[in-house]
Amino acid sequence: MPLEANAPPGYIERYIHSEIYKMYPAVNSIVHSHASAAVPYRILDTSTPVYDVAEHYQPDEIRDLLIRSVPLGQALASSFSKRHSGLTGPDHAVVFMRGHGSRVVPSSIEDCIFRANYTKENALIQTTSLGLRNAYHNFDEAQIQHLHYDEIEGTKTMGEATCHRPWGLQLRGVEDATPYGKE
Ligand SMILES: [Zn+2]
């Protein structure tokens, strides 16, 4: 709901944000990204959940992949967690959206920007690894050596502790860029 009665209409996909904030009180920052490097990863069998909007369209709804309604936003918010009650924060920080992009919801703005950037960077690294691997081995043997679970936990802690490092630079970049900053 806009604060000013005469405010111009908000962006149609605002339901992505509103329904996640309603469902997870611990979330206070969300990035919705169309980073093309990450879009193909919905076809791989990864532990990152995939939201397919086609499973949730109403019969008379426009089918353009956009999250145009509260029910579509609620379904997307639900895909961040397998539990359905007593939720404060989501089980997953990232969800891929089939044919559309990805969504990142850590608990701080700095961590959110950090993870959104590295969702794209990690997708580029993994795609490059797959290409190199397949260039030297039969496709059937293609295996990427992923992080071990204890490494995932360790790097998560490390990322949360260091996401403040690039934050000042990113902030300065926005402040210096029109139309956000001064001429
Ligand atoms: Zn979008």
Automatic annotation (TrEMBL):
Pfam family, one: Aldolase_II
Domain Class II aldolase/adducin N-terminal intervals: 12-126
Identification of the protein by name: Class II aldolase/adducin N-terminal domain-containing protein
Species: Cladophialophora psammophila CBS 110553
